[in-house]
Amino acid sequence: MAELTYREAVAAGIAQEMRRDPSVVFLGEDVAGAGGVFKSTSGLLDEFGPDRVVDTPISEQAILGAAMGAAMTGLRPIAEIMFSDFFAVCWDLVANEIAKTRYMTDGMVGCPLVIRSGNGGGLRFGAQHSQSVENWAMAIPGVKVVAPSTPADMVGLMAASVRDPDPVLLFEHKALYPTRGEVPDGEIVDELGKARVLREGPDATVAALALMVPRALEAADLLAADGVEVTVLDVRSLVPLDTVTILASVSETSRLFTVEENPRLCGWGAELSSIVAEELFWDLDGPIVRITTPHLPLASAPKLEDLALPDAARIASTIREALG
Questions:
Q1: Are residues 84 and 130 in contact, defined by beta-carbon separation less than 8 angstroms?
Q2: Contact yes or no for 122/175 (Cβ under 8 A)
Q3: Residue-wise DSSP of 111-164
Q4: pLDDT (tens digit, 9 = 90+) per residue, 148-173?
Q5: Residue 236: left (phi > 0), alpha (psi -120 to 50), or beta?
Q6: Where are the beta strands (DSSP E) in 167-245?
Q7: DSSP-assigned states of every residue in 231-243
Q8: Do residues 183 and 12 lie in contact, with contact meaning Cβ atoms separated by under 8 Å?
Q9: From CA 6, how far away is CA 274, in angstroms rounded?
């Protein structure tokens, strides 16, 4: 068992798959010689060489165009879009080409690639470099969407994503890069579409993703001091979504709170709330509550950004008030 940072786990997950499968290649801006703008891919060029770890021009369209062509012709590329905000530059390739290749060729041509990207706020990068866009991605049929919250999950979900026959968008939260966690020795392969129960309590279910997971756990500690015990779920995968685990938890607690960093309008929690309302309406003891970022661009000013993003205190107070 080793202790790795979330940043180190990115490189560990990529390296594990590149050692296993020579068809796995990695490309993106500054990912090779510089080791990534967030230093999350250091060492890969030294181990695998410039034929498999490739620095690209500053062109998101070129990166995804090359990755798509490689995937269609026998390779399994991992492509980096440096900031998830920049998906807006190349969204046509994601939504209209990569996502639809298998469908439009009647399964004759697959597109097995991973697009990984730094996602989310909290680091004072401003409105164009701090967005949490996983809800954009889950709206596109044909792509899978995952967002690890721990180093171990990063390695395991990276492996599962690389081995999947469909395109996967893997969102790495930038504020989690320096966090640390234990990662088991040997090969780690997780499963897409599986939520994880991190804490159990009878009073409510709290579903969170990425950076909001440790904040939800911290909120659970604050609530426990007041005698309120909640279940905390790490959703981990938005597409496919583990409705079995989520619905089972809500049926036991009879309350659901979602903790989302993406803006409130059309966030992933809205879809989850709809599913729970349809399936478990008569099991609920109160309304579903979404704890979100407001529907506005994130400020770079520290106090304003902190005010916008859900923190442990706001999560706990919202749950406490709703439960009475």
A1: no
A2: yes
A3: ---EEEEEE--SSS--TTS----HHHHHTSTT-EEE---SHHHHHHHHHHHHHS
A4: 999 999 999 999 999 999 999 999 99
A5: left
A6: 168-173, 180-183, 196-199, 204-208, 230-234, 237-239
A7: EEEE--EEETT-H
A8: yes
A9: 32
Residue 86: both structure tokens together: 């920049």
Alpha carbon of 109 to those of 61, 99, 160, 166, 181: distances in Å? 21, 12, 20, 11, 39
Between CA 131 and CA 125 the distance in angstroms is 10
Tell the residue number behind the tokens 């995937």, with chain if given.
71
Q: Quote the tokens at residue 34.
A: 């510089």
Whole-Å CA distances, 46 to 21, 34, 54, 63, 81: 17, 11, 12, 21, 21
Distance (Å, whole) CA 150 – CA 131: 20
Q: Give the residue numbers annotated as catalytic, written as ranges.
A: 129
**What type of residue sits at position 111?**
C
Instruction: Output the six-digit token pair for 44.
Output: 């890969």
- State pLDDT tens for residues 39-91: 999 999 999 999 999 999 999 999 999 999 999 999 999 999 999 999 999 99
Is there a cis peptide before residue 240, judged by omega within 30 degrees of 0?
yes
